[in-house]
Amino acid sequence: MGEYSFLVSVAIIMLSTKILGDLTKKVSMPQVVGALLAGVIIGPTGLGIIAETDFIAYTAEIGVIMLMFLAGLDTDIQEIKRNSLACIVVACIGVVVPLIGGTACYYFFFESGAADYQSILKAVFVGVVLTATSVSITVEALREMGKLEGKVGNAILGAAVIDDIIGIIVLTVVSSFKDSSVSIGIVLLKIAAYIACMLLLGFVINKNKKFIDKNLKKQRISTYVLAACLLVSFASEHFFGVADITGAYLLGLFLSTHAIKKEVAKKVNVPSYLFFSPIFFASVGLKVELDGMTAAIVLFSVLLLVVAIITKIIGCGLGARLCGFSGREALQVGVGMVSRGEVALIVAQKGYAMGLLDADLLPAVVLVVIATTIITPIVLKKIM
């Protein structure tokens, strides 16, 4: 019977995320906060009822892909075009400031005065971890508030896509100093090829708009589109090294002006809301493991968390302000970009595998990821 225990795990996740989601909603917080806390409570740090398994990890990945695809469908592409410069500026400054802040935080806490190559490289890598942005949680919070299609929501989404690409370049550059087999030229070539392929895909979808929208009434159209979303997500990650959620978001964006948009969104939203998304949100909380954390690591975690929040707000907020956003809008953009999510965890794991991140620092990074993920929707609701 052991092989069927995953059914119990799924049932507990679905019930706990729903109950805590409803409770947080009653106290005027986004439901996604309750879902995240549910993962922490039932996970290793809390009651220890559920542990992350391959099944949960894979299902959670589908959940975040569906979330970002739906976000793409909800995006106003004309607003993105109008704010394209803002998205680029927000993303660029939003990478540089956390990179400097994270590097300084690690260096002065652990390596103050050290001038050797390895110590400086480790400090820079902590900065690289903080450059990552994951807006999947922000997307859900904005959707709950009905703010996803506004100027701020579109700026956050557009900047997050560019942020992802810049983050890959920065990660590759830093990794190349540790591993000579990593070629910056090849990575840049892959990214250029990815941008070209996605532009071509967008062009083809737009040119065949009438043909695609002819299938509006057909039941199978949603199946075809979701299958295409998974294939584009796979191709993004496997062939180009770009996050799968970026591919999912871009496909949704390309279809956002089509007549099939509402039908597809309605069909995809049901399994996403009922099954896949709750597992994704809970899986973030399941990653919290605080065993073996010393007082020094706890203190460093708190400092790194403060730096992670402040640098994104300052960096992205400054970028938005320079592009004509009001002070309040700039603050909203900055807060919306604070969440690190699964992207930072992936970067941290790669750094650990390469020896750029010590094993005892992994819990600190996970703590920062979880904390920023929980804090972002709470603060965002207060300032929206």
Describe this structure in words.
The protein starts with a helix and ends with a helix. The protein is globular. The protein has helices spanning 5-26, 31-42, 54-74, 77-82, 84-110, 117-131, 136-145, 151-178, 184-207, 209-213, 221-240, 244-254, 261-286, 295-322, 327-336, 341-354, 362-383. By secondary structure, it is mainly α.
User: What is the CA-CA span between the terminal residues?
Assistant: 49 Å
Low-confidence stretches: none
Mean pLDDT: 86
What percentage of residues falls in helices of 4 or more residues? over 70%
Q: What percentage of amino acids are in beta strands?
A: under 5%
Number of helices: 17
Which structural class best describes the helix and strand composition?
Answer: mainly alpha
- Rg measurement, Å: 20 Å
Strand count: 0
Coarse morphology: globular
Structure keywords:
globular; mainly alpha; 384 residues
Summary?
By secondary structure, the chain is an all-alpha fold. It is 78% helix and 0% strand.
SSE layout:
Layout: H1 5-26, H2 31-42, H3 54-74, H4 77-82, H5 84-110, H6 117-131, H7 136-145, H8 151-178, H9 184-207, H10 209-213, H11 221-240, H12 244-254, H13 261-286, H14 295-322, H15 327-336, H16 341-354, H17 362-383
